[in-house]
Amino acid sequence: MEHLDPFLIIEQTWWLGIPLAMIGGIFLGLSPLALPITGTAVGLGAAGGLGARGAGVKMVAAFGAGLILVYTVVGVAAGQIDRVIEGIFRPYAGIGYLVIGAMLTGLAGWLLLKPAAFCSSCTRSPAKSTTTLGAFALGVPGGFVNCPACAAAITGIAASAAKLGNPLYSGAVMFALGVGHVAVLVAATWFLTKRWPPPARWLRWFQSAAAAVLLMVAAYFFYLAYVGGLSTGPRLV
Fold it and tell me: What are the residue boundaries of the structural domains of the chain, listed by start?
């Protein structure tokens, strides 16, 4: 039914479009299409969870803040979405894959080689924690390259929000989408690290497992960049 089309609702009804976008973000967080981003969050959450209580949640929230920032900027620029896609996403997605792969590899290596330093950094305030700042920095290219399979939905929502011709509205829609997406990741991390903390004797194993998850996701992004090169590889749309 046409009136139940979520894209049409976002285009025509602002008071329904924003909560609908948040619901869409929740579904995105639960969807297997977003596994590259989910896998990154799992690795960050597990790695942070080895430090102070709540550090895993802090790491994933910082990563999510990077995603939300990018989603919101894309929303504000949604009136120029075709130009943004052609000028940024298509030409530079391959570079984005390499950047996020390299950052994930670096975090995994740090966790494997200097786990005490990694977890010690997690205990500091977000402004002074290099791991938290690194997670935020990782979320920025993550927001641009995201998951190739789900990017059509993300850019489609941005384009629909732009139909009303109000950058504040389209930015709010994409902010809500990001909040919904990140809320799933943060809630899952909170549950696993606070409600189901690993026994002390398992911590070393969890360190290796978290690093392995980060390395696997990094390998996936390296593969995407390799398949078609830096200028013609798989793209957001």
Answer: 2-226
